[in-house]
Amino acid sequence: MAGEKPDVLLVGARKPVLLNGLEPKVNLHDYLGAKDKDAFVASVADKIRAIAIAYTANKVDAAFMQKFPKLEQISSFGVGYDHIDAKWAGENGIIVTNTPEVLNEEVADTALGLLLCTVREFPQADRYLRAGKWVSAQYPLAKATLRNRTVGIVGMGRIGKAIAKRLDAFGVPVVYHSRNPQSVEYQYYPKLIDMARDVDTLMVIVPGGASTKNLINAEILKALGPQGIVINMARGSVIDEPALIEALKNRTIYSAGLDVFVKEPEVPKELMEMDHVVLFPHLGSSTEVTRAAMDQLVVDNILAWAAGKAPLTPVPETPYPPKR
Predict the structure, then answer these.
(1) How far apart are CA 167 and CA 118, in angstroms?
(2) Deepest of 1, 123, 314, 321, by most Cβ within 10 A of its Cβ?
(3) What is the spatial distance between Cα 173 and Cα 212, in angstroms, rounded to a whole number?
(4) CATH no. for residue 28?
(5) Could you please report the per-residue DSSP string of 281-292?
(6) Distance separating alpha carbons of residues 251 and 178, to the nearest angstrom
(7) Within this chain, do residues 199 and 263 fall inside the same structural domain, yes or no?
(8) Are residues 49 and 144 located together in one domain of the fold?
(9) Is residue 275 located within the same domain as residue 134?
(10) Entry pTM
(11) Catalytic machinery residues
């Protein structure tokens, strides 16, 4: 591609790191800024050779990719890429990249924060103080503690390992379930149901998509038991949301801490009305520093492709070099 600027479709917000990194090097076409998207796509479809995705909320399925006959690369923001049909992309010679590693520590920090808030009721205590109730009575003693808990991590990938490291520092025993055993010192459970029976806390950090949909279901929640706490840092789809609501209503489990939801930013009214759960607005990696690093990796993957180099972080479904 020497001597020419390749045409790249930007799907998502015009974030400064993306614009500053890409505009000098490529011809950037703003998809979301187009009033008539069908007409816009028709006008650029034959030129587009790569797509930069700014947020995981932007769906890129096979039908969308097929609109761009010269498409070679999709560089997506975030670790999760269930918003992209990566299998179809790989089968059709399109490389998909994501942004792993640069957000591991931030998400692990948030996971521990959510766990602490859920177990120790920190948000509830804050609301109690702000309501002026402390002048009349001390906030009630928390019924739960980390001191006698065992955390079962569902998904011992990069972020799962970072969470486990933090739990080690807190003196909290860790076990795990994942598709395959990992090179870690923690006990491995091939079956999630068996782990749920043996622990009282589940920390969920697996990819979204069809293979993990409703992985945490009514059976798993019942096995976890009345002292059970579920922390979801993965995708909303990983938990059977109606089953979770029912388990929380009936006190089949003790509590839940949720950073993600099935139809976010919409959150079920039933969850909003429960005072014994903690809800975050998908904060995982939400700091300016980490989000800028993620945006930069989106840029770097596009620029590597534009220079004819290997992608920096291809997903498993689209190995390099591509097969066409």
Answers:
(1) 15
(2) 314
(3) 25
(4) 3.40.50.720
(5) SS-TT-SHHHHH
(6) 27
(7) yes
(8) no
(9) yes
(10) 0.90
(11) 235, 264, 282
